[in-house]
Amino acid sequence: MDKKNALRAGALAAGTTLMMLLMSSPALALTRDDGDDPGTGLSVIETLGLYVLLPIGLFVVIAGLVMALDKSHQKKDPTSSNIRTKADANA
Fold this sequence. Notes:
This is Secreted protein. Keywords: Membrane, Signal, Transmembrane, Transmembrane helix. This protein is an all-alpha fold. Helix content is about 50%, strand content about 0%. The N and C termini lie far apart (about 70 Å).
């Protein structure tokens, strides 16, 4: 890609990003919608448990199941046991 096309692509990406940021103003989030019932917020412990500890726990459980149910260690190549690395020298 030459410099002209790279400059054009960069300008288009920057312009698109700028327009998206300008159109989604945070001030629009202050008005409530009809039927909006947000409820109570999460505490710090609940937030850490939900977004940090729960994903780590799920990862550990899935990794443990994969390692426990892995059957690849049972496969053995029968020809590899017949190979000798040292030569018998009787001279």
